[in-house]
Amino acid sequence: METRLYRTGAFAQRARVSVRALRFYDREGLLRPSEHSMSGHRLYSDRDLITLGRILGLKLMGFTLAEIKAYLSAGPEDLIDALARQRAMLEERQAQIGKAIRTVREAETQAREGTWDWDSLLKVIEATKMNEDKSWALKHLTQEQIDAITDISNRAYTPSANSKLAERQWTEEDQAKATQEWNEVYAEAERLAKAGTAPDSPEGLALGKRYGALLSAFTNDDPEMIEGLQKFYAEAKELPPEKSPYNGATWETMQFAEQAYEASKS
């Protein structure tokens, strides 16, 4: 069967997306054109239309571009697991939105009846903020991980330390940046450990300083925060993989990073 090819503009029209979107997906490595003409024009096929449909579907469900790229090349089991996590996230978000709607509706009723006060507004703000905070958290962690982290944090940190954490107003951008930095540290720790490098070697000490800088940024060198973090770390080590907040890092890798950090302090 002959495969029909389309120039970018014609394919965009057929797929009901913009030319700009196609170029973006090409640049990001999500959807490469099937061929190029002799003059260098991108040529798309009907098979590319199927791939584009997958991209748009996953994007609609809230997956990031990096996740979509991984799932396009992954096996069906990986995609099933990802979809299950996404469904759980959407269900949790649905429950949060329902709670926020009920709070807003109550405030609206009070306003109509003339019984509204500032506490009603504060409840609306709190419900909206909790909804936003949990929504972005669920992009990075499963509900099981969030529940485990919350449970351990309540035990590990004093009420005063927990208040300090809450006052930071940690955003999704903060989380993404911290995750990237910790992943880089643990990736380097894994590389050094596998190579048999000693924690107190020059490379190990350099890693230890990076590790220490991240700890300092999180605790602000506050003794109360440091003590809470140590207790949290001790309990988190005992969590099963599906509840662990340390995605992708083995305890052996984390132990090497910690040893390098201790060596860098001496």
Tell me what the structure shows.
This protein has 266 residues and is mainly alpha-helical. The chain folds into three domains: 69 residues, Orthogonal Bundle (Multidrug-efflux Transporter Regulator, Chain: A, Domain 2); 65 residues; 119 residues, no CATH class. 73% of the residues lie in helices and 3% in strands. The protein contains twelve helices and three strands; from the N terminus they run E-H-H-E-E-H-H-H-H-H-H-H-H-H-H. The chain has a three-stranded antiparallel β-sheet. The protein is flat. The mean pLDDT is 79.
In short:
The chain is mainly α and about 270 residues long. Helices cover about 75% and strands about 5% of the residues.
Summary keywords:
266 residues; mainly alpha; Multidrug-efflux Transporter Regulator, Chain: A, Domain 2; 3 domains; 12 helices; 3% strand
Any chance you could write out the topology, listing elements then pairs?
Elements: E1 5-7, H1 8-15, H2 19-27, E2 35-36, E3 42-45, H3 46-60, H4 65-73, H5 76-113, H6 118-140, H7 143-156, H8 159-167, H9 172-194, H10 202-219, H11 223-236, H12 251-265
Antiparallel strand pairs: 1-3, 2-3
Number of strands: 3
From the N-terminal CA to the C-terminal CA, the straight-line distance is: 71 Å
Percent of residues in helices comes to over 70%
Average predicted confidence as pLDDT: 79
Number of helices: 12
Helix/strand/pairing class, anyone? mainly alpha
Strand content: under 5%
- Total separate domains: 3
Measured on Cα atoms, how large is the radius of gyration?
24 Å
How would you characterize the largest beta sheet? Answer: 3 strands, antiparallel
